[in-house]
Amino acid sequence: MRTGVAIFLILITVKVSGQTDSLRLRNDTIPERVYLLQTVERDGVSLPEIQIKEVTVAGTRATSRKSVIRKYDRLIYNLKRVYPYSMIVSVKLDRVNEDMSAITGEKERRQYLKEFEKDVFREYEDDIRNMTITQGRLLIKLIDRETQNTSYDLIKQYRGGLSAAFWQGIARIFGTNLKEEYDPYGTDFMIELIIQDIEAGRL
Hints:
Blueprint (H helix, E strand, L loop, with lengths): L1 H16 L2 H6 L12 E5 L2 E5 L15 H37 L4 H24 L3 H15 L3 H9 L1 H13 L15 H11 L4
Antiparallel strand pairs: 1-2
Helix pairs in contact: 3-5, 3-8, 6-7
């Protein structure tokens, strides 16, 4: 860097020296304060040099503004699509817990869960099947946000460990993870901001 600066300053010096007569004719344009350069000898050659502040240059990945906006708009669209279902899961879970607390027999509890599952499946099957994989991943995150439980933990709690392991295997085939947790202060901070806007009616 210093060599480049020195060459640049030499060019300026040569140019000014060649314009001495011109400068004498226009002495009103010469600044009142003049800064003298220090001379440094390098490899037997005296060169003018000046100290400049260190500059840090940080590169960023070339991403078009339109591409970023499209991704953001798509995230908003997907979240508005799946957010209501995460709320439904939360409400349904509260209802199940309340009903189950009044059922004492293990057989009756299993029968209740079976019937409840059929009703929910019949009501929301078409909606869930029409979701994209991306929307499904977001729903898994939002379920954890609303219930404080991962989808895997919920299945394990109400259907057993074997069923949870089975559905986790299916989810893995489609590139999702039922154990994924919601991180509003880390990887999911943008999702959290959008959800807050949705809840406040701004989106």
